[in-house]
Amino acid sequence: MLFGNGSKKISIVLVGLDGSGKTTILFNLRLREATNKFKSSEGFNFEKLDLKYQKAKYEMRLWDLAGSRSLRHKWFCFFESITPNAVIFVIDPSDVNRVPEAKRELHRVLYDPNLMESVKVLLINQRKDWTGKTRLDETELREVLNVPRFMKSVVVDGMNASELQFALYHICQKFEKR
Ligand SMILES: Nc1nc2c(ncn2[C@@H]2O[C@H](COP(=O)(O)OP(=O)(O)OP(=O)(O)O)[C@@H](O)[C@H]2O)c(=O)[nH]1
Ligand SMILES: [Mg+2]
């Protein structure tokens, strides 16, 4: 959608299990200073981000939704009310015990009827500063989560979320093709 200032508005929703790092990633991208002082979210956080991609200007509107089990049903109400252009599913590859739970939620999101037209990205929060912790790599994760080929995955570091830009560029690119 094109607005008066010439930038296209793209709505993006971040979901994923509680503790996967959604709020950390969003705020570190916005603030450009590393912090990990976040408590589990109860509602949602919202950020706007201006981005240039191939000479076009975009206003990325990002909603980070709380991921606690009791709050996850709200994701689907949210999808219905805003029909986002893109959805980013964040996963912590060191949370190995909860992979089956993450897989179940991922697949509920992937096949939600309100997201049929939305670009979908898997964001892997590597937490590079957590050395020595066992984690699944990107290939293993795609396999165990049964991530479909159409879904791009991007590896980020929660404390320096600059790689999130790659996910956002991918969303712009797909958005233009639709
Ligand atoms: N050290 C470190 N801590 C991280 C990193 N990413 C996330 N965390 C921490 O992990 C915890 C969970 O991160 P959040 O960003 O709150 O997770 P969330 O996905 O927003 O969780 P909910 O709001 O409950 O859905 C917080 O204490 C963060 O500070 C990272 O890359 N490094
Ligand atoms: Mg949060």
Structure, explained:
The protein is α/β, with parallel strands linked by helices and 178 residues long. The chain has a single domain (7-176), classed as P-loop containing nucleotide triphosphate hydrolases (Rossmann fold). Helices cover 30% and strands 26% of the residues. The radius of gyration is 15 Å and the shape is globular. The mean pLDDT is 89. It binds guanosine-5'-triphosphate and magnesium ion (MG). Residues 16, 18-24, 36, 38, 40-41, 66-68, 125, 127, 129-130, 157-159 line the site of guanosine-5'-triphosphate.
Sequence-ordered SSE layout with sheet pairings:
Layout: E1 8-15, H1 22-31, E2 44-53, E3 56-65, H2 73-82, E4 86-91, H3 99-110, E5 119-125, H4 138-145, E6 152-156, H5 164-177
Parallel strand pairs: 1-3, 1-4, 4-5, 5-6
Antiparallel strand pairs: 2-3
Quickly list its features.
Rossmann fold; alpha/beta; 6 strands; single chain; binds guanosine-5'-triphosphate; 5 helices; 178 residues
Radius of gyration: 15 Å
End-to-end CA span: 12 Å
Strand content: 25-35%
Q: State the major sheet.
A: 6 strands, mixed
**Which second-level CATH architecture applies?**
3-Layer(aba) Sandwich
Unreliable residue runs: none
Q: Which ligands are bound?
A: guanosine-5'-triphosphate, magnesium ion
| Relative helix content | 25-40%
**What is the CATH domain class?**
Alpha Beta
Number of separate domains: 1
Tally of DSSP β-strands: 6
Q: What pattern of helices and strands is seen along the backbone?
A: EHEEHEHEHEH
Main-sheet strand order equals: 2-3-1-4-5-6
Count of alpha/pi helices: 5
Shape: globular
Structural class: alpha/beta
CATH homologous superfamily identity: P-loop containing nucleotide triphosphate hydrolases
In round numbers, the mean pLDDT is: 89
Write the CATH fold name: Rossmann fold
